[in-house]
Design goal:
The structure holds two protein chains of two kinds. Chain A is of the alpha+beta class. Chain A has four helices and eleven strands. Chain B has a single domain, classed as GHMP Kinase, N-terminal domain (Ribosomal Protein S5, domain 2). Classes of the chains: A alpha+beta, B alpha+beta. At the A-B interface, helix 1, strand 9 and helix 4 of A face helix 2, strand 11, strand 12 and helix 5 of B.
């Protein structure tokens, strides 16, 4: 119940980008790139005291069973926006006034938890790009399947409909244990919400370890029997 | 929008003493007024005011093909527009990300609570279902438009009646409303947004307070039986919240629910 799916993590997967990373949780795979900081156009959008992050979340048409229509949807705009907020809380943007950092997240295979995988990849890509981070951020979808709190839910679990059904609670938590992103869909008793936060904290610590090791140059693939190859 | 530093500083200082510029305590809300039925062309409509914030909401019903994965269920769509009428800061144009997010957060409160009985919106399985279109217009923004919009949507749904549907000709007679209300359940959602300014938390901000806020958390709560249920949540803003702050918000939201929800039910009746 508290077990995460096998993770994959690697930085530098897109050579052209200033920073890039791949993060996979089970069958969900996300790639993130970072370009910038660069001068923001139009000029009236610039912030005199800080840089801004502009994030596009893009679920590729072939990443899901029923082809997704290409281009931004209301869902993808919203996910891009909450990702922007989460990343802006941890990146030290005061160092780059007047600039924009562009983050692209591509979901190439989806099995639930895509926004979390995207945030994990994007945070790694930002750090890989050399952007100063006040804290690292890790993201996980806590679920409630019927009345049990579980960690890192899959699509099948997300679609579970017996008993109390399925609840999806994506959390993004910083390395100093603060919440920078939280959403919830489904139903959870108010008195059980604390359990969800605690489960998320524990899970995010494990993800943080994988992200940190990948940033140090390891290619992590927990699917492989031997586990880790050194670069 | 940017608030002057001096205003923000004052708001933060007062909140530390548990006070607000308009005399309220941190979790007090402004007066809520609800006007039922504001457009006779809509199947259900309402005007909601929270203090000086004002939204108008209409529900229109259409028929459409069901989604492939829900062949026997109706559908819903929520849209939100900050009309240029609602304040200096708003301009004409397609909905921006804040309007899209607001609409989606309101949508999820209604959808996830199971307030609408989707199966009863089915006309013919796999062929035709009702779709409930909820359009929310903010016409005066003095903060906390999200909660006002959600309340307006809730009210308009409660008031909505099906238009007459001619099964033979497969046409809708919009000018003849039937006596049948929408199939709603007991899982009535109340959407509440809490804000963090400095190290303090508050509810129902006015425009200045909302501009001063560093982060927010929206949650929808329903209480079909004894336990209160959280049906949706969304954090916003560029600043983090601690687990203690989140737990405090959940706790306060239950108190606000106990005060606000019975009052709303009374006003809609």
């Amino acid at each position: 119940m508290d077990e995460l799916r096998p993770m994959r993590a690697e930085v530098g997967v897109i050579p052209n980008a200033v920073g890039s990373a791949l993060f996979a949780a089970g069958k969900t795979i996300a790639i993130a790139t970072v370009y910038g900081p660069r001068q923001l156009h139009p000029a009236n959008k610039r912030k005199a005291d800080r840089g801004i992050i502009r994030c596009m979340y893009n679920m590729l048409p072939f990443s899901v069973s029923d082809r997704a229509r290409p281009g931004p949807s209301r869902r993808s705009k919203e996910i891009g926006f909450v990702t922007e907020s989460a990343l802006s809380a941890v990146a030290d943007l005061s160092r780059f006034p007047g600039t924009v950092i562009d983050v692209q997240i591509l979901i190439i295979q989806a099995d639930a938890g895509t926004r979390c995988a995207g945030i994990n990849a994007a945070a790694m890509a930002l750090a890989h790009a050399g952007i100063v981070m006040k804290e690292m951020v890790s993201s996980v979808a806590i679920g409630k399947i019927d009345d049990k709190i579980v960690v890192d839910i899959t699509k099948d679990e997300e679609d579970y409909s017996d008993g109390e059904g399925s609840t999806d609670i994506p959390f993004s938590i910083t390395s100093n244990n603060e919440v920078v992103h939280l959403q919830l869909d489904g139903l959870i008793q108010t008195k059980r919400f604390k359990e969800a936060i605690e489960a998320a904290k524990v899970a995010c610590e494990k993800i943080l370890d994988v992200q940190t090791r990948a940033l140090k140059g390891e290619i992590i693939n927990e699917n492989e029997s031997k586990g880790v190859k050194k670069k | 929008m940017k608030i002057s530093n001096i205003n923000k500083k004052k708001i933060i200082e007062l909140l530390k003493e548990g006070k607000r510029l308009d005399g309220r305590k941190p979790f007090d809300f402004r007066e809520v007024t609800i006007e039922k039925g504001i457009s006779n062309k809509a199947e259900g409509s309402a005007r909601v005011k929270i203090g000086k914030t004002e939204v108008i909401v209409g529900v229109k019903m259409q028929t459409q093909e069901p989604y492939p994965d829900h062949q026997d269920e109706g559908t819903m769509m929520v849209s939100m527009e900050f009309s240029p009428a609602s304040g200096e800061r708003y301009e004409l144009g397609p909905p921006r990300i804040d309007a899209i997010e607001t609409a989606r957060v309101i949508d999820r409160g209604i959808r996830e609570s199971g307030f609408i009985d989707w199966k009863k919106l089915c006309i013919e399985e796999g062929e035709k279902v009702w779709s409930v279109m909820i359009d929310i217009y903010c016409i005066n923004d003095d903060g906390n438009v999200l909660d006002a919009g959600a309340l307006g949507a809730f009210t308009a749904l409660k008031l909505a009646k099906f238009p007459v549907y001619d099964k033979k000709e497969e046409t809708i007679k919009y000018d003849e409303l039937s006596k049948d209300p929408l199939p709603l359940t007991e899982n009535a959602p109340l959407t509440m947004t809490f804000y963090k300014i400095g190290d303090s938390l508050l509810f129902d901000p006015n425009r200045d307070e909302e501009d001063a806020a560093d982060a927010r958390l929206t949650l929808s709560i329903s209480q079909p039986k004894k336990d209160k249920i959280i049906n949706s949540m969304q954090k916003g803003g560029l600043v983090s919240m601690t687990a203690d702050e989140l737990n405090k918000i959940v706790e306060e939201s239950e108190k606000v629910y106990n005060k606000l929800f019975p009052d709303i039910e009374k006003k809609i009746k």
